[in-house]
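Lab notebook, design round three. We kept the backbone fixed and only want residue identities now. Task for the bench partner: fill in a sequence for the structure below.
Input structure tokens:
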């Protein structure tokens, strides 16, 4: 007999369940849900906002290599090399962020689309792995 499976049902607290009935066996498969579009957008907007703050700070605080340290009465700056070593973020990455931030709404939409695609791909991969293993989540 072919197993009967229900659709996924949200049950709260971020969990979904799907029921399957086959012969005498009744199973429930659970999984965490994917974040909603609104949740993705909120996180993406926060991420892009932090990048914008970092780029603004970089522009006023980072001195190009070879430029002398400003005096104490001037605004204190840090060298590109020292900052890259400390943060792992280089001037190429800052340049990419600066370019993307010219269209903030478009950039947020791209971040949301990429995050949703990755999450859906991972969920599909996990679902297929469970089905192949016969595992019950």
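Proposed sequence:
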């Amino acid at each position: 007999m072919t197993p009967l499976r229900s659709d996924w049902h949200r049950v709260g607290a971020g969990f979904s369940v799907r029921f399957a009935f086959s012969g005498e066996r009744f199973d429930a498969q659970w999984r965490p849900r994917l974040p909603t579009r609104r949740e993705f957008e909120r996180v993406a907007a926060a991420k892009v906002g932090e990048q914008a703050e970092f780029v603004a700070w970089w522009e006023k605080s980072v001195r190009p290599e070879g430029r002398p340290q400003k005096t104490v009465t001037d605004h204190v700056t840090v060298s590109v090399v020292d900052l890259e070593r400390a943060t792992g973020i280089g001037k190429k990455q800052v340049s990419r962020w600066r370019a993307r931030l010219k269209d903030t709404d478009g950039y947020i939409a791209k971040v949301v689309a990429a995050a949703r695609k990755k999450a859906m791909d991972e969920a599909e991969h996990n679902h297929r792995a469970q089905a192949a293993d016969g595992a019950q989540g």
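Keep this in mind before ordering anything: The helical segments are 37-61, 80-87, 91-100, 104-133.
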